[in-house]
Task: inverse folding
């Protein structure tokens, strides 16, 4: 969902870029998190052995 | 500062342009929270740091740092988290999230670097100053830096938005722990226990990782709303359309009721986390379960890992659910269900019902995490969005208090029972019943939360400029 155009007083200084791809941004933070979760999950399996 | 001389870091330069996608904000927030969440994995350094002189974790030298000395590092960090969140909250609202995130990255990354020097020189005071004091300031500023921005980007689902970010704090330990273990193994031959180079490497990794958040974060323009979003005025009397500034918020009974709510929820959760590993090994030992059927040290570590996972899941699940259920009913569930489960746990322990006990502990941990993640949205409902980050910062002093009170209380109660000669499940009964009692206090405090009196409302026009007035 994109922001609606506005008439804010801040607009002259506002950033004009799109900020990048959300998919890449989520991958950047999601991959380390998935690695951490997988490591924890593997450790947790010891409880059920 | 004049507009034309403002820097890339200033709030005015972070106002989103027309092409900006608001779904970039949660990853920016996660970059900060996943990094600073490493603090909860500090215990992974305790044994290696306690054997820097001897080089043997099982036979520390008399000059080696003691577990007690090392426990202080984390305590300082948690106290500074709360204090810096309280002190810098209004500054954050004024300068915007980008400058605050940069300050957090420099403090958190820099804290590691100073601590590495402390480890190299074997100066515990330098470690206290680096990781505890400087790093702790980074924790506090970082924790609150994206909260207000997320709530403003997601007025239609603030619980989902803050749940995503605060879930990152839970996930940070899951990344930080195995990362530290791998780095210490890698550097073991080049420095005592590999700790100092591990600190340097982690400091630099986290600094770079957090910079992603610094560059990606944007604030919405004044008056921005998601397309098609219409505030539901009939949703609840607890959801205000006014704004209360941070200085007035702390004068309201509602703020202090929520302070008690957070204190009780966190202290009770720490009661489980602090004792998890010894508790499950002592309660479900070979002696009580039968030879070869007791919980081993490795299985206990797995139990702690499982609790971390449910702590993380609870942050997202409960905070998101609170958008539908309402904040007050969600905390009623945390405390109501929590009282039942804490009271049930000693019975399950006494009967040797391992599986059911694990299930109960996991559910408890979801609500511990949920309590953290739901509180920003609760504050937004009661005090509006104008200075919600600063108000949240002040509320986090409850976390610092719980961070000190929780372990002290739990260890005192457990030691007292052991001194009476109680062992196994019996030695932990009082801990669980006391935690259930704390949840009763939290339940009552939440019950007493009502709408904030209009006399506290901010009277001026709310703009980004008034956010930090």
Result:
């Amino acid at each position: 969902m994109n922001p609606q155009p506005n008439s804010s007083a801040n607009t002259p200084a506002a950033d004009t870029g799109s900020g990048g791809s959300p998919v890449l941004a989520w991958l950047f933070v999601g991959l380390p998190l998935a690695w951490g979760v997988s490591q924890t999950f593997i450790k947790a399996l010891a409880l059920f052995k | 500062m004049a507009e034309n001389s403002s820097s890339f870091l200033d709030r005015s330069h972070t106002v989103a342009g027309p092409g900006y996608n608001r779904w970039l904000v949660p990853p920016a927030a996660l970059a900060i929270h996943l990094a600073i969440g490493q603090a909860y994995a500090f215990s992974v350094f305790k044994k290696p740091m306690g054997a820097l002189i001897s080089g043997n974790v099982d036979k520390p030298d008399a000059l080696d740092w003691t577990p007690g000395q090392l426990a202080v590092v984390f305590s300082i960090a948690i106290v500074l988290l709360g204090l810096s969140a309280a002190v810098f909250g209004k500054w954050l609202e004024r300068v915007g999230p980008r400058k605050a995130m940069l300050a957090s990255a420099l403090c958190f990354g820099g804290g590691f670097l100073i601590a590495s020097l402390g480890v190299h020189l074997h100066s515990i005071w330098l470690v206290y100053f680096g990781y505890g004091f400087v790093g702790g300031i980074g924790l506090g500023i970082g924790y609150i830096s994206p909260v207000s921005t997320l709530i403003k980007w997601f007025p239609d689902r603030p619980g989902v938005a803050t749940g995503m970010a605060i879930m990152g704090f839970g996930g940070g330990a899951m990344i930080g722990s195995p990362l530290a273990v791998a780095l210490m193994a890698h550097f073991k031959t080049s420095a005592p226990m590999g700790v100092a180079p591990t600190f340097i490497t982690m400091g630099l990794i986290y600094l770079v990782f957090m910079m992603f958040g610094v560059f990606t974060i944007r604030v919405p323009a004044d008056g921005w709303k998601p397309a098609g979003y219409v505030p539901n005025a009939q949703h609840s009397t607890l959801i205000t359309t006014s704004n209360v500034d941070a200085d007035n918020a702390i004068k309201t009974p509602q703020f202090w009721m929520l302070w008690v709510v957070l204190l009780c929820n966190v202290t009770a959760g720490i009661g489980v986390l602090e004792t998890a590993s010894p508790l499950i090994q002592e309660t479900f030992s070979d002696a009580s379960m039968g030879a070869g059927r007791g919980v081993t040290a490795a299985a206990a570590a797995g139990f702690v890992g499982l609790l971390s996972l449910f702590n993380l899941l609870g942050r997202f699940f409960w905070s998101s659910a609170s958008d539908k259920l309402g904040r007050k009913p969600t905390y009623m569930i945390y405390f109501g269900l929590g009282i039942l489960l804490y009271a049930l746990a000693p019975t399950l322990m006494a009967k040797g019902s391992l599986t059911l006990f694990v299930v109960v502990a996991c559910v408890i941990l979801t609500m511990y995490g949920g309590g953290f993640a739901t509180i920003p949205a609760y504050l937004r409902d009661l005090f509006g969005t104008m200075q919600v980050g600063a108000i949240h910062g002040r509320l986090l002093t409850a976390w610092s208090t719980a961070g000190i009170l929780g372990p002290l209380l739990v260890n005192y109660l457990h030691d007292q029972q052991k001194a009476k000669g109680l062992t196994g499940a019996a030695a932990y009964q009082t801990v669980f019943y006391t935690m259930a009692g704390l949840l009763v206090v939290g339940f009552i405090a939440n019950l007493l939360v009502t709408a904030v009196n209009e006399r506290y409302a901010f009277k001026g026009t709310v703009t980004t400029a008034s956010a930090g007035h």
Observations:
- Residues 348 and 357 of chain B are 6 Å apart (CA to CA).
- Residues 1-5 of chain B have pLDDT under 50 and may be disordered.
